[in-house]
Write the structure tokens for this entry.
Amino acid sequence: MAEHAQLFGLFHSFETAFRSTVAVTLERHYDHQRWWRKIDDELRNGNKARSVKKIGTVPIPSDTAHSFGEIIYAIDGDRFQRNLVWGFVNGFQFVEACHLSHIARLIEDHWTIFSSRFVRGPNRLSLDHFKRKFKRFVMLEMTCITTSRSHG
């Protein structure tokens, strides 16, 4: 129990740094602090996320645009009833509102730009290896959070 309490702080620090890395990487990739904004605008206008073909000058695959749309709905609600995303001014605010499963999805959809960050020894991790490791991390973190809450 005490060990889990100590790990909670470690997980929180790691997760915050990890979210920051994802946010900055996507801001640089799309050359825009609000890289989700065009998709959010399209959704609010009643269009599908897949209708967005570029963010700025960067082409975006249909599946990636769809993922952004799904994440926006998860944050804001299917009728934008929470209305949070529209007010985010940078990638960190967007990523901070995401569940860890959304973070994994963002990384998976952008694996070509993230893969160089996930290295084990001299080798880059494969996407499948990353998914397995990330899933284990999430499960361990959830165990520590649950234990800390039930005994705290």
Remarks:
- The chain has one domain: 2-151.
- The chain has a mean pLDDT of 89.
- The chain is about 65% helix and 5% strand.
